[in-house]
Amino acid sequence: MPMPAMQHVVLIRLPERPGEADQAELARLVDALPASIPGIRRLHWGWDVSGRSRGYQLGLVMEFESAEALAAYLPHPVHQRVVAWLNAHQGEILAFDFPLPG
Predict the structure, then answer these.
(1) Which class would CATH give 34-97?
(2) Number of separate helices (H) and strands (E) present in the chain
(3) What is this structure's pTM?
(4) Which of 19, 21, 36, 44 gives 20 to 30 Å between its CA and that of 57?
């Protein structure tokens, strides 16, 4: 029986919104994820515009082929570059994963 696809939702809270150069660096890092890491089907991300995010400014929604693909993504060096950027900017990360219906 095939493993279900997985949805990976990430919300990020930063102490302050980064400047343009830092935002461009983050965009470059995040945009590199699908081409660099096998198993990513879709990636959508952006800055909150609603004002209803309870302090979380940035959101990412990713779809993975399987739970195994999601597990392999987490330690991947390209993903770890994003994590390092967030850690350097004191990002607080909330992640939520769930299987998608077949």
Answers:
(1) alpha beta
(2) 4, 4
(3) 0.92
(4) 36
Strands (E), the chain: 6-13, 40-47, 58-64, 92-99
Q: Which two tokens stand for residue 84?
A: 């390092």
CB 25 within 8 A of CB 85: yes
Instruction: Check residue 54 and give left, alpha or beta (phi > 0: left; psi -120 to 50: alpha).
Output: left
Task: List, for residues 59-86, the tens digit of each pLDDT value.
Answer: 999 999 999 999 999 999 999 999 999 9
The 10 Å Cβ neighbour count of residue 64 is 26
Tell me which amino acid residue 45 is.
Answer: W
Measured at the alpha carbon of residue 80, what is the angle toward residues 13 and 67, in degrees to the nearest 5?
90
Token pair for residue 79? 């993903």
Q: How far apart are CA 95 and CA 60, in angstroms?
A: 9
Name the nearest CA neighbour of 83 among 14, 8, 28, 29.
29
